UniProtKB/TrEMBL annotation:
<keyword id="KW-0378">Hydrolase</keyword>
<protein>
    <submittedName>
        <fullName>Protease synthase and sporulation protein PAI 2</fullName>
    </submittedName>
</protein>
<keyword id="KW-0645">Protease</keyword>
<dbReference type="InterPro" id="IPR007396">
    <property type="entry name" value="TR_PAI2-type"/>
</dbReference>
<dbReference type="GO" id="GO:0008233">
    <property type="term" value="F:peptidase activity"/>
</dbReference>
<dbReference type="Pfam" id="PF04299">
    <property type="entry name" value="FMN_bind_2"/>
</dbReference>
<dbReference type="GO" id="GO:0006508">
    <property type="term" value="P:proteolysis"/>
</dbReference>
<dbReference type="InterPro" id="IPR012349">
    <property type="entry name" value="Split_barrel_FMN-bd"/>
</dbReference>
């Protein structure tokens, strides 16, 4: 299930893709099973290296972890996205579109041991709530009880595909106009900033 990526929107720099996965860590875990697709949303810790690894956890009651074990699966990371009005472009013959950024990591998942599972939870807390992590609640009995209700997963990334569709196929004045309009929308500022960050790629 490859991603359709026109040349203008392709991203191939590994470091840049990993940085995206770390900045937007809430991903879809997708596993093809018996003609259907299992899907679970998970916060992910991405660890770069010669072999990129991603770590997350699932509820022990969610049988997705059993089906994903050793089976080719996918983690899909979504960045900012927004509707782009044709009114923002200089050519009236333009059409509306949707700008977005996405990374698909393909690989296989394995259940971790208890030590690594504890590390996954600790790392997630350090990233998203450092103050709470400093309380060291993992020492509490209730925390240890809840630990038994989750399964730690280690995902070995075998391939990456990245698509940043942010109007790069449009003339520079159109891109700048879209950025300006997005900045004026409360829910459009992040997409505007992402688009602005790509302006250095203008040929």
């Amino acid at each position: 299930m490859p991603v359709y990526i026109p040349r203008e929107f392709a991203v191939r720099e590994r470091e840049r893709i990993v940085g995206f996965m770390q900045k937007y860590p809430f991903a879809q875990l997708l596993t093809p099973v018996d003609g259907d697709i299992e899907m679970t949303l998970v916060p992910v810790v991405t660890v770069p290296g010669e072999q990129i690894e991603a770590y997350f956890h699932l509820s022990v009651f969610n049988e997705h972890w059993k089906k994903a074990q050793g089976r080719r699966s996918y983690l899909v990371f979504f960045g900012p996205h927004h509707y782009i009005s044709a009114r923002w472009y200089g050519d009236r013959r333009s059409v509306p579109t949707w700008n977005y950024a996405v990374v698909k990591a393909a690989g296989s998942a394995q259940v971790t041991d208890e030590e690594k599972k504890a590390w996954i939870l600790r790392r997630l807390s350090e990233v998203f709530d450092a103050e709470w992590a400093s309380w060291h609640m993992e020492r509490e009995d209730y925390y240890r009880t809840m630990m038994r209700e989750i399964v730690g997963m280690r995902f070995l990334v075998e391939s990456l595909e990245a698509k940043f569709k942010m109007s790069q196929n449009r003339p520079l004045p159109d891109r700048l106009s879209a950025i300006e309009h997005l900045r004026g929308l409360p829910d459009g500022r992040e997409t505007a900033e992402f688009m602005e960050g790509l302006l250095g790629n203008v040929e």
